[in-house]
Amino acid sequence: MLKPYYKDTKSVGTTPARSYYIPFSRADKKSYDREDSSRFTSLCGAWKITPYESVLDVPDDFYNNDGADDIAVPSCVQYYGYDYFQYTNDRFPFPYDPPRVPERNPAYHYSRYFDCKVGGEKTYIVFEGVDSCFYIFVNGKAVGYSQISHRISEFDITDYVKDGKNKLDVLVLKWNMGSYLEDQDKWRFTGIFRDVYLLRRPQNHITDYKIETRIHGADGIVAFINKSDVQVAVTFGGETQSVPARAQSEFTVKNARLWSAETPFLYDMVIQSDDEVIYNRVGIRVTEVKDGLYLFNGKPIKFYGVNRHDFHPEKGYAVSREDMLTDIELMKSLNVNAVRTSHYPSSPLFYEMCDEYGLYVMSEADLESHGFVKSDGGYDWAMQAIPQDKNFEQSIVERSVCNVEEHKNFACVVMWSLGNESGWGANEKRALEAVVARDDRPVHYESIYPYVVGDEEYYNGSGLKTVSRMYSTPDWIVNEYLNDAKETRPFMLCEYAHAMGNGPGGLKEYWELFESTDRLMGGFIWEWADHGVKYGAGDGFKYGGDFGENLHDGNFCIDGIVSPDRQFKAGSLQMKYYYQPLKFERADNKLTVTNKNFFGAQTGELVITQNGKAQKRGVCIPPRESIVMDLTDGDATAQYYVGGAEVARAQFVSDKPRAKFVCEKIKTELHGHALIVTSGDNEYRLDVQSGEVESVRAGGAEYGRISLNILRAPIDNDMYIRQKWDARYLKFARPCARGYRVEKDSVIFDIIVAADSLVPVIDATLTYSFCKSGVRVAIDYKVNDVTKFEFLPRIGWTLKLDRSYDKLKYNAYGDGETYSDMYEYAIKGEYECSVKDEYKHYVKPQESGSHYLPDYAEVSDGKRAVRVEGMTSFSALPYSTAQLENAAHDYELPERDGTYLSADYYMSGLGTNACGPLPFDGYVTPNAGADAICFYFGEKR
Ligand code: IPT
């Protein structure tokens, strides 16, 4: 009978948690690639699998079975057709009945054979990640059991293996009692999703060691703490010291080169005992909280961070070393300097690469029990549940212990995190104590608010030296944190700028605030990549609900700053801009360029473009220093490149005066519902029912209706405000003219915009004036107070053209899409492109492709053209607002049926309201306004 270990939270037979390292033999050549070690044998690759609907169906001698189907390790079983795909954010995908394990608990018997050479040495087997728990059998004998999906589980199998062929059987269960502590916002996958390998080791070998570094003046001090029962020889900086069992020794590095994300310098350390050699790279650095500030190597650095999950669209959690390296390289290219391993530790290979490539890591324990909030009684009640429940104490503590023990020797780990969204109680306190007892790096935990339980004040009294919040507004940070006289700890946002869909808007406000004081440590954008799944029929990314699951959280998993396949969107580049290491300031014709780095010089090429002429200059700007360059009059663009790749940019542009509109005489004649306006050779039919232009004959062509448009295809960040829009039938609201008059060659309409059965949303006056080649529509409007809208999506005009109007020329913030609160990354300039490429593809279609502050935009079929001027935003898209709104997936967008040219008096900003604030003041369609837009019809210019 299978022992019911899964109904508890303890591992059985695992070796004590230790730092990650891979031993080599003396005869091996020195390498930092574990595959080069003769003591390392990968067990990744082809395995067999037998699925069981329930753990209760697993026969006692299941390990006598050789396995029915093929499976690759590492992987997630769902990608092999087992079980089902399910995405839930914070809700538990099983009944909330702790500590009871879900009754329906599928089991997967994995098996394979492996060769072993015992030769008097010890053999260990290591699993770097298995979701959610597993039993291991070697040659038919039970070895042990482990859980905590993202811990490294090691078993000593010396007494189980024999020379030659051996059989390995692993029974993986979907759930265990610890599943209440693994409710992270992710697809709920199962399987051996990280590497498995054997380690062959001498009888008496190193078990664990800790490397600590300090800075003393210009010198670095490296302490080696031997946590093993054997003596070891440690070589560092050309010096070898013998360190007895359980002892420690120190090395001094004169004029040390310090490690930082900007200067990821690593020293070699070689640790030897018996025939074993461990190559451990060491970064010398100090990470601490001191005098109310977070200091790294003594400097108040900022985290330009992202939250990262393990995710690959075709492999789920089973990301390879190459996949992780891709993430790291892309992060570096986007000026990211910090990663929170949300909400569990990453693979050790990820930390190894962060050491090497330079990223600060907040290493988070594998803990989230968020679902208790939605299980019933809400936040207050929930905070008292699992965090105080004795049943979970051991596991909550162990999760932090594993996090610290496994990753303590990585220089990149600048902070530990106790987990995410799990409340605060005695159990978290114990976890904090366990971390502090082991290591002096600052500890992060967000899920603790100023509240009192019994006679304990759980906030300032928590023992945490940093304060963390998620999604708070800049105003909140000022009013509730900076202005709190009692608060003396440094502050960070462990999550902000929820990057779901088109966005994030508002980074400027966050970064102006973060850069304004050393007390703010910066933040981590939620999150790095969309979790869009590629599996099954259809050629596109899927999200929650696409696999028929009853309980799911839809597209809330599509909230990355890069797409599932790591393509950039406008938001990625906006993040890159606010994370850039150079600051550009212009005063008259002096440009000051400052290196914001604390440790690394900026050596590259600055390109200054003025009046169409580019001037290049090689620069080397030491940390925290500036250079000043001369500019000439007029607009200027500065771009900074390192090794050919752009790292930073800025633009200084002044507003252009609007072109003069010279009014022509008109003749008007009423025909039924149409007021025909003739101006020179042009004719406009104005619909006196709506106040819109119904059709145009001008510039040798005919055009259709120019419709008043107050909608946008809802972006994900509209998800809450759109409920208000929907409640007032905004989608059905249409312009209705109350009356019109002709005055001095203008036609003036008083209109309302209203839906059947409801009072008007808008009252407006439209004034049409006409020039030689076009028409100007001035608007003066007010949104009805009863609507209580914070803002409308937009207000402007849309003209549908034939799809042959595919050529677009404009001068605006481009060439990516830009909005009032997300444009600084873009360069205002002249662009030519194709309308078909103007829609930027999101996994779930939404408004996209706008350009902020245009001087003009012109679409043409190569011969005839429509040009718009005077708007604050425009788009020329191959899809209508309704087509975008109605498609749930990108691959469902219909065949293109035209060109939709929209010219907006106002297009609301994006904000990050899917989880954070609405667009900030000043970035939205005002509830009253007046402006004018001109349409010109003629030949292509
Ligand atoms: C926040 C979670 O910490 C994160 O894991 C993710 O789920 C995010 O929300 C939404 O995408 S918690 C939320 C209640 C603010």
What is the gist of this entry?
The protein is mainly beta.
How would you describe this structure in keywords?
single chain, 941 residues, mainly beta, Jelly Rolls, Immunoglobulin-like, TIM Barrel, 5 domains, nine-stranded antiparallel sheet, eight-stranded parallel sheet, 11 helices, globular, binds 1-methylethyl 1-thio-beta-D-galactopyranoside
Helix and strand topology:
Blueprint: E1 23-25, E2 40-42, E3 45-52, E4 69-73, E5 87-88, E6 107-116, E7 122-127, E8 130-131, E9 133-138, E10 141-147, E11 153-156, E12 164-173, E13 186-187, E14 191-192, E15 196-201, E16 209-216, E17 219-226, E18 232-236, E19 239-243, E20 248-253, E21 267-273, E22 276-282, E23 287-290, E24 293-296, E25 303-307, H1 321-333, E26 338-340, H2 348-357, E27 360-364, H3 372-375, H4 378-383, H5 393-407, E28 413-417, H6 426-438, E29 443-444, E30 452-453, E31 456-457, E32 467-470, H7 474-482, E33 491-496, H8 507-514, E34 520-525, H9 570-578, E35 582-587, E36 590-595, E37 602-610, E38 613-621, E39 626-630, E40 636-642, E41 645-652, E42 667-671, E43 674-679, E44 682-687, E45 693-698, E46 701-703, E47 706-709, H10 721-727, E48 734-743, E49 746-754, E50 762-771, E51 774-783, E52 794-801, E53 807-814, E54 827-834, E55 851-852, E56 856-860, E57 864-869, E58 873-877, H11 881-886, E59 899-907, E60 928-939
Bound molecules: 1-methylethyl 1-thio-beta-D-galactopyranoside.
